[in-house]
Design goal:
single chain, alpha/beta, 5-stranded parallel sheet, 15 helices, 36% helix, binds alpha-D-glucopyranose
Length: 390
């Protein structure tokens, strides 16, 4: 959850949604794992409480820290399984253990601090086991509505089967779930959720079909009455070209001609001709097969006789990075690849590029295109999922 820890789009949503809900008067308490990296940054913070995380083979202890971030309260759940993993996302078995521990610890923290929520909202496979635990571990919140938001269906927590058993969670018994899915964190959590949401309406429909359902389409279709897409948003104050310090020049939505200064600045940085009429294309993304970086590179390769300049910003899958590297080397006079996660440069790109390419193979929602729209970089997208809806 931004601004504390960010790996992908989930962080923007988890960080900004509580603030948006607070404006409607909802009292949201956000729980996050107390990752080793965060712990190092917040070294002075004192624990508020310790709680027990029961397992069939004994009891683990979780610590609860709390802090205010932009007027919202965030609980940080710490403990041995979280300390044992250096990165936010790592080895599947280790991740399943630490996130299951986290989810149970977060529920125990609510109980121990006397805060009983009217809705428990879990995001993705990582928090999904907490819903199963809330329903089955004689915790007592049998009627508390459980909501699970799916940000990316293929990530089901594979490899997490043993960890669930270690925390005493039984396989799902929903007859619509295939056997292989019953012991996985995401399907298990979905089977216990009262409502399932996805991050766009189109994706909610798509995952009920074989092309996007990852083998769970029959189960998801059986839940159609309690499966909704709710489109993500971005915070217009956080994404505001009129008040952004990163671009060369700030501009309002009624002075788009000022963007030319930002485009020229980018062309200068990369040593390219400063042509106003050569389209400057940008792509800002995790380099994942999902995101279709290869599709964009192949398409540009085919556009030899057309003028374009292209900047790709992001890192990820080594094979995709290597392809991008080779592409940039072959087109130095008009293509650049910056293998970094660089929020500052990304804002300069939104503020200066003419078009933003988002050719994802599938896209539960996607946030870059909304940032592009807000900054006047016209999104050129594949008509899928949230890209279609936005
Ligand atoms: C995941 C999805 C992306 C979505 C984001 C936030 O990263 O792949 O489409 O925008 O979560 O919901």
């Amino acid at each position: 959850a931004t601004p504390l820890v960010k790996v992908g789009g989930l962080a923007d949503v988890a960080g900004e949604l509580p603030r948006a809900l607070a404006r409607y008067g909802v009292d949201v308490q956000l729980a996050l794992p107390f990752y080793p990296g965060l712990k190092a940054e917040l070294a002075g913070l004192r624990p508020l409480a310790t709680v027990e995380v029961p397992r069939p083979d004994g009891v683990q202890t979780a610590t609860v820290h709390a802090l205010e971030v932009d007027g919202r309260r965030v609980w940080l759940i710490g403990g041995e399984p979280i300390d044992a993993a250096p990165a936010v996302y790592g080895a599947p078995e280790q991740d399943a253990a630490k996130f299951t521990f986290f989810g149970i610890g977060a529920l125990q923290a609510c109980r121990s601090l006397g805060w009983e929520p009217e809705v428990v909202h879990a995001h993705d496979w990582h928090a999904a086991p907490s819903l199963a635990w809330m329903r089955t571990a004689s915790f007592g919140w049998d009627r508390t509505p459980a909501l699970l938001t799916v940000h990316n269906l293929p990530y089901m927590g594979a490899g997490g089967e043993a960890a669930l058993a270690e925390y005493g969670l039984r396989p799902a018994d929903d007859p619509h779930l295939p056997d292989w899915a019953r012991r996985l964190p995401l399907p298990l959590g979905m089977s216990h959720a009262d409502w399932i949401t996805t991050v766009s309406p189109s994706y909610a429909g798509e995952i009920q079909t074989p092309a996007f359902g990852c083998g769970l389409e029959a189960f998801l279709a059986s839940r159609a009455g309690r499966l909704r897409g709710i489109l993500n948003g971005i915070d217009p104050r956080v994404w505001n070209p009129g008040a952004d310090a990163a671009p060369e020049r700030r501009y309002a939505t009624d002075s788009l001609e000022d963007r030319l200064t930002n485009k020229t600045a980018l062309q200068r940085i990369f040593g390219w001709p400063e042509h106003g009429r050569t389209p400057l294309l940008a792509m800002i993304t995790r380099l994942d097969v999902q995101k279709g970086v290869d599709l964009a590179l192949d398409a540009l390769e085919a556009l030899q006789d057309v003028r374009w300049q292209f900047i790709l910003l992001g890192r990820g899958d080594p094979a995709v990075e290597a392809q991008a590297e080779a592409f940039a080397a072959a087109h130095r006079d008009r293509a650049a690849f910056i293998p970094q996660f660089d929020p500052f440069l990304s804002r300069r790109l939104y503020a200066g590029a003419d078009m933003l390419l988002v050719p994802s193979r599938y896209e539960p929602c996607g946030l870059a295109q909304m940032m592009g729209l807000r900054y006047g970089a016209v999104p050129v997208v594949r008509a899928t999922g949230g890209l279609r809806d936005t």
